[in-house]
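Illustration 12: peptide-methionine (S)-S-oxide reductase.
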Amino acid sequence: MTPNIIKIGFGGGCHWCTEAVFQSVKGVEKVEQGYVTSTKSNSGFSEAVIVHFNIKCVTLTTLIEIHLFTHKSKSDHSMRGKYRSAIYTFNNTQHEDVVQLLKGFQIEQDQKFITQVLLFQFFEPSRDDITNYYYKNPKKPFCETYINPKLKVLLQQFSEHVDQDKVIHLKA
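Figure caption equivalent — predicted structure in C-alpha cell form:
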C-alpha cells in the first residue's frame, strides 16, 4: 500500500448502500464490503465497509461528512445491532482524530448523532456475489429504492467529490 492510501471503516445502513456511496467518491481506491466487529459491547458483527482512500485526493473529514449525511446517523432503531452507525478506526491517533471531527460536526446539528467511533477489531468480507452490488445491479428494486436516494444526496451535497462517470445514470 502506498503511503498516501489509508483506510477507515464505516457502518450505517445496509453495506450495499454504504459500499455504493463510497465507491462513487473520487479518491477512494477500494471499498471492501462485509461485516465488522469492534470490542466490548460492539463485538458482534455489523454490516460495514472498509474504505481505502488517497489522502491527496479526498480528506478524512470529507469522508466522515459524507458518511454522516448519507445514512440515518441520528436515528436509533431496532436493527442497530446489524446496522450499527459507526466509524471504525485502525489506530489510536486516527481514533482521536475521528472523535474530534465528529464533535465538530455535532456543533452544527440540532439533533445528536448516534454514530459511534469504535476501534476496528475484525473484518469478514461479504460473498463475492453480493459485493459491488449496486454497480452490478443498478436497476434492481433495492437499488432504486434505497441506494439511489443516498447517491442523489451525495450528488447534491458533495458533487465536487463525486466520480461523475459512476453516477451518470442518476442525472438522466
